[in-house]
UniProtKB/TrEMBL annotation:
GO molecular function: peroxiredoxin activity
All residue ranges annotated as the Carboxymuconolactone decarboxylase-like domain in the record: 40-116
Annotated Gene3D superfamilies: AhpD-like
InterPro entries assigned to the protein according to its UniProt record, in alphabetical order: AhpD-like (IPR029032), CMD-like (IPR003779)
Name by which UniProt lists this protein: Carboxymuconolactone decarboxylase family protein
C-alpha cells in the first residue's frame, strides 16, 4: 500500500503520543484507506490531539488520567499503551504507581493489580540486563 500524505500525517500524530504507531492503529488506518474512510480517522486524530495534547491539564497529566480511567475499566491493552504515552510525556514510574493506587479507590483491587502489573512490565523493560 502506498503511504498517502494523509496516512503519514495521522501516523505522525500517534508517533508524537506513543513514540510509534500502535498495531491496532495501523489496522484501522489500513481499513480506512482501503474503504475510502480516511476522513474518519483524520477527524478522530484531530479530536485526540485536542483532548490529549491541547488539554488544560497538559499532556503528561492527561495521559495519567487516561491510564487511570482505563485501569478502572479493566482495559489492559489501552492502559499499557497510554502508560507508555505518559512516560513519553514526562511521567515517571512513581507517577504511574500513584495512578494505580488511585484506581484502587475508584475501581477496586482488580484495577490496582492491573496498574501495578503494567508498572512492573515497564520497570522490567527499563532495567538494564544483568
Amino acid at each position: 500500500m502506498t503511504a498517502a500524505p494523509e496516512l503519514e500525517s495521522i501516523r505522525n500524530r500517534y508517533r508524537e503520543t506513543f513514540g510509534s504507531v500502535p498495531h491496532g492503529i495501523e489496522d484501522r488506518l489500513r481499513v480506512a484507506h482501503a474503504t475510502g474512510r480516511l476522513d474518519v480517522e483524520e477527524t478522530f486524530a484531530t479530536l485526540r490531539r485536542l483532548v490529549l495534547h491541547e488539554s488544560p491539564l497538559g499532556t503528561r497529566t492527561q495521559q495519567l488520567v487516561h491510564v487511570g480511567q482505563l485501569l478502572v475499566l479493566g482495559r489492559g491493552g489501552p492502559a499499557r499503551l497510554h502508560a507508555r504515552g505518559a512516560l513519553q510525556a514526562g511521567a515517571t514510574l512513581a507517577d504511574l504507581v500513584g495512578v494505580a493506587e488511585t484506581a484502587l479507590i475508584t475501581g477496586g483491587a482488580p484495577a490496582y493489580a492491573l496498574g501495578i502489573e503494567i508498572v512492573a512490565e515497564l520497570f522490567d523493560a527499563a532495567e538494564p540486563p544483568d
